[in-house]
Amino acid sequence: MKARQITIVCTAVSAVLETPAATGGKQGRRGRSSPRSRAGDADQAAKHVDGVTGPDEYSGVTDDNLFTNLMAARNLCSAVAACARRPAQAARLGVRPEETESWQAAADAAHIPYDDRLGVHQQSTGFTRYAPWDFAPEHPGEPLMLRAPYFQLCRRQVIKQVDLVLAMHWCPEEFTDEQKACNVDYYERITVRASSLSACTQAVMCAETGHLELAHDYASEAALRDLHANAGHGLHLASLAGAWSAIVEGFGGLREQGSVLALAPRLPEGITGLRFRLRRRGLRLLVEAGHETVRVTLLDDTETWLSLRLYDETGELASGEPVHRTVVPFKPLLAAPRQPPGYAPQRATAGPA
């Protein structure tokens, strides 16, 4: 399997795992319920994935890309859960109990690259010891691949599109709030967004870490960049889906926490209200949020209820009983991060949206 194919397969499997949440089918365990300890990272028992390329296209073949390791661990956990749900089918496929035990052990021992000196996770093993990229002021915002060979890009701390930050977006349970804040602060400074698929995840993670105005800038870029620049070549569906993620997962705070649907809406000043629908376990929900209050409504007339976590309160969402909450503000742990010179997003249009 080629270096990048491992990451692609992990991503495809993740999409399969997410489907039951919408359709109402049975869902396996996707990952951990709490951040992973770093205590055993240097242990000989740690499991490594060497010779891979993660989502970032300015990285070459590396060892222990964090995104790939976490996604591989999630897939192994889900495979264990699937075999436990359907033991007869697993037995017919020749899956033995000791095999699923080894899968779980490998997932639990996945190596998580971390730099204790800087207090941040590493995109891959050794990434934070690479030399920094010299962002020349005479070429602000220019795609680096047009003036530098990939040999140089792969040896420097410069990122074309989110990689480790994508890992925090897709595997939020693996990181603490402090780790997310420190990682966003560090990686924002070296990400140039030469891919239109980067801004959406940057919007999500900037919103989660409390930088709502910066998140608004990124969400605007995610929604409009391809429409303004590439519409003549057709629709970039992945980018359009990313715009939805920027708004719903960013400002709506949508997350899946096991069997519980979590929401934590918070809006930037330029957006006065947010309204979107979801399908969860085959049931339709309506979420309406402003700067002061949030309301979540189950639209189907049914006796089935859903587990809902709204900010820090968990309860049941039932038909005919909308849940109302006051918006809970979140104070950023760090100041708004800087971007590389010439690569800051354009400010979103001020005023109501």
Automatic annotation (TrEMBL):
<dbReference type="InterPro" id="IPR012341">
    <property type="entry name" value="6hp_glycosidase-like_sf"/>
</dbReference>
<dbReference type="InterPro" id="IPR008928">
    <property type="entry name" value="6-hairpin_glycosidase_sf"/>
</dbReference>
<feature type="domain" description="Glycoside hydrolase family 65 central catalytic">
    <location>
        <begin position="43"/>
        <end position="244"/>
    </location>
</feature>
<feature type="region of interest" description="Disordered">
    <location>
        <begin position="21"/>
        <end position="57"/>
    </location>
</feature>
<feature type="compositionally biased region" description="Basic and acidic residues">
    <location>
        <begin position="38"/>
        <end position="50"/>
    </location>
</feature>
<keyword id="KW-0326">Glycosidase</keyword>
<dbReference type="Pfam" id="PF03632">
    <property type="entry name" value="Glyco_hydro_65m"/>
</dbReference>
<keyword id="KW-0378">Hydrolase</keyword>
<feature type="domain" description="Glycoside hydrolase family 65 C-terminal">
    <location>
        <begin position="254"/>
        <end position="314"/>
    </location>
</feature>
<dbReference type="InterPro" id="IPR005195">
    <property type="entry name" value="Glyco_hydro_65_M"/>
</dbReference>
<dbReference type="InterPro" id="IPR005194">
    <property type="entry name" value="Glyco_hydro_65_C"/>
</dbReference>
<dbReference type="Pfam" id="PF03633">
    <property type="entry name" value="Glyco_hydro_65C"/>
</dbReference>
<protein>
    <recommendedName>
        <fullName>Kojibiose phosphorylase</fullName>
    </recommendedName>
</protein>
